[in-house]
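User: Batch of two.

Assistant: Item 1 of 2:
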Amino acid sequence: MVTEQVERINRNIEGAVNQGRYLILKTHRMTELVEKHIMFSLESILRKTEHERLIHTLYTILKELVINGCKANQKRIFFDEQSLDLNDESQYHKGIELYKKAFSEKMALEYGKKARDRGLYCMIDFEFDKEGIRIEVVNNTAIIPAEETIMRDKLKKAMGYNDLAEFYMEQAMSGDTEGAGLGLALIIILLKGEGIDPSYFRILIQGEQTIARLEIPFSERFRSKRDHDARRVGEQA
């Protein structure tokens, strides 16, 4: 039954890619099936645009972003259940510690169902043609100021690294192990490793939505959305 479901969804993905330049996937939690659909989507799009060499790098990045988006939604539910205020600094740190201690794969599945019931989602929006690809990972909970500050700091620091081992070593020595921030910093390093300008990666807050946007030009005719963004996290001077 699972195999039939995967094949059916993959046929729909392949059909959408072959017929147009847009594709949207939506989920409430990261599962093995979701991972397979992300990989198949990238394979289909990058084959069509003749940039298959980017499959594994983009898959790694997308997986990180979707996990972060799903966790962000699930953390909001956890804080609500614990009657903790995200915007109160002491309560925020208490909640994060409680969440880290309680987190497990079983919990992720349970809270994924709760996210679905509350209308919280993580959506992957692909837009692509021969000029380039734009991928947006959207979750419908906004980043609070404390989290935004952490992300801005991580992204700024990551711009100074070109090597994953060097980055890991310095983070370990400083005792800095903030999960989501570390993952975002590694994304920047992966992009630099592919020769992709990391300024094409943005995290934006629009109302109650947090949007992680990655753009990759395939030609000089590609037009980026970044110049139209009113608010950016991690913007470089």
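Item 2 of 2:
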Amino acid sequence: MSAEPPLKPDWDQLYRVAEAQEGHFTTQQAAQAGYSPQLLAHYVRIGRASRIQRGIYRLVHFPAGEHEDLVAVWLWSEQMGTFSHQTALALYDLSDVLPARIHLTLPEAWKTRRLRVPKLVVLHFADLLDSERQWVGAVRVTTPSRTLDDCARGALTPDLMRQAALQALHRGMVRGSLPTVEEALKPFGGLNA
């Protein structure tokens, strides 16, 4: 793909980008497909696209996606964020956790950035290895093992932590022992209490 945007708007290119992101795209992605800010504003006015938040849009007639709220947050993070903690547990359907907030891990370097964090988003900062992340649908999520470690270090209740770890082991999502989880659960009777 060339660095120069096309001379005229390329709807097919914009659609392909949005299709991979549950119908969402950024102002920058639109520009790469040849859409000026003025043309994008026109598409919003005529109802072909809707503005989700600053710099993030959605194709109006694109079918609703399962994780649209997460895609918008991921695009807000400039595609650098990885969903983690309780959000990752919910995406993997591990335990009965129903997170009221979206947990997103950003690179450590983002700690110094002044961010206008979207409502209901909790930020964590860590330089994740590629081996600690994977795709779940249209979003990047910490692996089950990393997710369990993060939750064990966080504020997840012992019952939900135990349930998540046992489900992950039973379903073969993690292998071997879970030392961080076992240590966190030691005061509460251990993993198999």
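The chain has a mean pLDDT of 93.
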